[in-house]
Amino acid sequence: MITNIPRKDAIELIGNTPLVLLQAASEAAGCEIYGKCEFANPGASVKDRAALGIIRDAEASGELTPGGTIVEGTAGNTGIGIALVANALGYKTMIVMPDNQSKEKMDTLRALGAELVLVPPTKFSDCNHFVHTSRRLADETVGAIWANQFDNTANRKVHIETTAAEIWDQLEGRVDGFTCAAGTGGTIAGVGLGLKERDENVQIALTDPHGAALYSYYAEGELKSEGTSVAEGIGQGRITGNLEGAPIDTQFRISDEEGLQWVERLLREEGMCLGLSSGINVAGAVALGKQLVANGREDARVVTILCDTGFRYLSTLYNAEWLASKGLPVFGWLER
Ligand code: PMP
Q1: Are residues 305 and 215 both part of a single domain?
Q2: Which of 18, 45, 51, 309 can bridge 81 by disulfide, Cβ–Cβ 3.0-4.6 Å?
Q3: What's 45's DSSP letter?
Q4: What strands lie across the sheet with 69-73, from one edge to the other?
Q5: What per-residue confidence (pLDDT) applies to 309?
Q6: Pick the catalytic residue: 8, 36, 47, 290?
Q7: Which helix (H) or strand (E) segment is 19 a member of?
Q8: Domains in the chain: how many in total?
Q9: Coiled-coil annotation: which residues (predicted)?
């Protein structure tokens, strides 16, 4: 439960995030759209939960022992979450990432104390791909575990136990729809399963960016991608361990342009600076809300995830030159 009681340590700052009624999105949908403020976690993203869930699970199984090392192949929010949780619990962090990732990400991970291993970018089928390299390094390092966020279902379990339970409590047991995009799929599958446990009528929708294969999988049963996206952290091409059995009722495909419009409105009209996956999620929530309203549910309540802070994307999403170089619309105030 959300509480003002002092937390006993920084680990307890993870989760119990606020839920906010999104004004412009609610108006656009004709029903209530809520955002779960995952950017309010200590690592400023939804991935702090997965990091903590995976680490706690490895401790409970006895695989992770005091002073051990957590190894993961990730360039982004998961690495940041792991590094913070590992520091708080006395573990070491080793992150393997392709050397074409942004300097900010490398600097952030180094600043948090993670050991960075840079590898050349390559295809997933190549044994030197950063994910395979991270698994190998975990095998070769004494006292290390491989976090394996894509297929390790401790990831979605933490969303069943915390994110879904919090949303249910925060809306006092009346939720009609939930939607978000998938990276590992831990959030959509975990929140979906957790909400369905409480009320099987809650509509769970996958919101997919272009370039990902899940929209066509849930719509037509075939993994097939179309177009591209610059959104980070989302867009999946396979059914990960975390996505297996996810209770998806319906699906939406959202373009970067549409997601960016919501990033712009959330900042300009509501004062929240967010990343593109949040904008894409809000676009999906508006689509789901409209669908529920069209089915006679003017009182519908839809929830989505505000995944991470926009401060992580100052040189990309919030940079006029970068946006223009990608052929994307530039926020008006950046051109002044
Ligand atoms: N948005 C961002 C910015 C992320 O980093 C991630 C994590 N990959 C997601 C959304 C998707 O979360 P999940 O891995 O739980 O599907």
Answers
A1: yes
A2: 51
A3: B
A4: 115-119, 92-98, 69-73, 144-146
A5: 96
A6: 47
A7: strand 19-21
A8: 2
A9: none
Closest CA to 233 of 124, 122, 150: 150
Q: Does residue 100 sit in the same domain as residue 17?
A: no
**Ligand 1 pocket: which of 104, 187, 239 to mutate (most atoms within 8 A of CB):** 187
19-21 and 115-119: which strand pairing?
unpaired
Say what percent of the chain tops pLDDT 70: 99
Write the DSSP symbol of residue 227: S
Going from the Cα of 276 to the center of ligand 1, the distance in angstroms, rounded, reads 11
Give the pLDDT band (50/70/90) at residue 3: low
Question: What residue has token string 């991935």?
Answer: 47
The confidence score (pLDDT) of residue 321 equals: 96
Of 104, 115, 159, whose CA–CA distance to 310 is shortest?
104
Q: Which domain range does residue 277 map to?
A: 10-43+161-330
Give the pLDDT mean for 18-24: 98
Query: Residue of the nearest CA to atom 8 in ligand 1?
Result: 233
| Residue 153 domain flag | no
pTM of the model: 0.97
Using a 6 Å CB cutoff, which residues line ligand 1? Answer: 45-47, 76-77, 181-187, 232-234, 275, 277, 307-308
For the beta carbon of residue 226, count every other beta carbon within 10 angstroms: 12
Q: Is the pLDDT of residue 117 over 60?
A: yes
